[in-house]
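Subject: Re: docking follow-up (coenzyme A)

Dear J.,

Thanks for your patience while I sorted out the input files. As discussed at Tuesday's group meeting, I've set up the holo structure prediction with coenzyme A included as the bound ligand rather than trying to dock it afterwards. The sequence and the ligand SMILES I used are pasted below, so you can double-check that they match what you have on your end before we go further.
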Amino acid sequence: MFPIEIAGPRIALREFRIDDLDASMAVVGDAAVTQTLSFDVRTRDDQAERLSLDIARAQSEPRPDYYLAVANSNDTLIGFVRIGLGRDRSGELGYALRREDWGKGYAAEATALMIAFGFDALRLHRIQAACGPDSRASQRLLARLGFTPEGRLRDHVFTNGAWRDSLLYSLLEHEWREARHDGS
Ligand SMILES: CC(C)(COP(=O)(O)OP(=O)(O)OC[C@H]1O[C@@H](n2cnc3c(N)ncnc32)[C@H](O)[C@@H]1OP(=O)(O)O)[C@@H](O)C(=O)NCCC(=O)NCCS
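The structure tokens for the complex came back this morning:
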């Protein structure tokens, strides 16, 4: 499926564009954001190359992931949310926002839109998320979304020069539907 555009009350999920480069540096170029992600802070040159690859990958068939920009009401990129597709109708959720927009509920909105897309449009059965043990906001967010903790993945990622554990969470389709009381 391409292109994807999902509108929420305050933010929208949309495909990346080449002119998102400067705005995306407030996310991937900020060490305070990337310290709890699975990759290191990026230079502008690195990000320019990655962004071009991300834009091209979105149009590949079959699509390996849905990596989308989180855009505010001015259509400015303020973050990203991603579902990577795995086997047996599974997906892995990832997300990050620029620091100036933390604590406003935007991540809750963006991830809820992506999860609904994953279960309804992509027909996933299971969505998992691996987050850093020190990422309190992320753990709180996943709990609020109805995810269940599954355990600790030891030395799961090598980031910022060191191995780091992750906490694994998952949400199953029927749990999500029951929580929404739609039973469909
Ligand atoms: C994780 C992240 C996306 C959360 O974004 P956000 O927009 O601030 O989150 P929200 O405002 O939607 O809040 C979600 C929940 O986290 C809580 N929260 C937010 N910041 C928090 C913090 N610093 N400490 C503890 N809880 C926090 C909120 O209170 C809310 O819980 P509630 O609904 O029970 O009140 C953001 O902090 C971020 O981009 N971090 C860096 C990247 C990252 O860690 N990504 C996740 C990788 S697994």
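A couple of observations from a first look. The helical segments are 21-28, 31-34, 44-58, 106-121, 136-144, 173-180. The chain has one domain: 5-180.

Let me know if you'd like me to rerun anything.

Best regards,
T.
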